[in-house]
């Protein structure tokens, strides 16, 4: 359980810190936004839930790695290394988006980051499916929200 707590601390804690440091301010309030922009209060609970799902999925993939005594350890490591790597990359991209968008005001760069994030999330789902179907399924709401966020980011770029 200590490993799960570590994943939760990293993901939820990291997300909360980044959200606090790069909170939307006056700049965001002045942007033209599409009609499908959700109310501001939706973001904190949505991301908190998503960060919990992301952490649990990462932990599930991490705990499935074979031990040194496993006869098929090399094959198992190879099979799990891609989803684990994709999980790490998606987290880095996720944590990079807010500073690019809210702190640097680089809406185009943020769009490139969120599009890469969505591709990474979908690749994680596809590669984790065989290793841990639950971990893959935990990423489905994240994929849906990120697809929505990509469309929202693109619309903000187009309107501004």
Largest sheet: none
**CATH-derived topology:** Ferritin
CATH class category: Mainly Alpha
**Which stretches are poorly predicted, pLDDT < 50 over at least 5 residues?**
none
What number is the mean pLDDT?
Answer: 92
Please tally the helical runs, counting DSSP H or I stretches of 4 or more residues. Answer: 7
CATH structural architecture: Up-down Bundle
Shape: globular
Helical coverage, percent range: over 70%
Spatial separation of the terminal alpha carbons: 46 Å
Radius of gyration: 17 Å
Approximately how much beta-strand content do the residues carry?
under 5%
Order of helices and strands: HHHHHHH
Q: What is the β-strand count?
A: 0
How many domain units? 1
Structural class: mainly alpha
Give me some keywords for this one:
160 residues; mainly alpha; Ferritin; 7 helices; globular; TspO_MBR
Describe the protein's architecture and organization.
With 160 residues, this protein is mainly α. Helix 5 packs antiparallel against helix 7. The protein contains 7 helices and no strands. The protein is globular. The chain starts with a helix and ends with a helix. It has a single domain, classed as Ferritin. It has helices at residues 2-21, 26-30, 43-63, 73-103, 107-131, 133-138, 140-159.
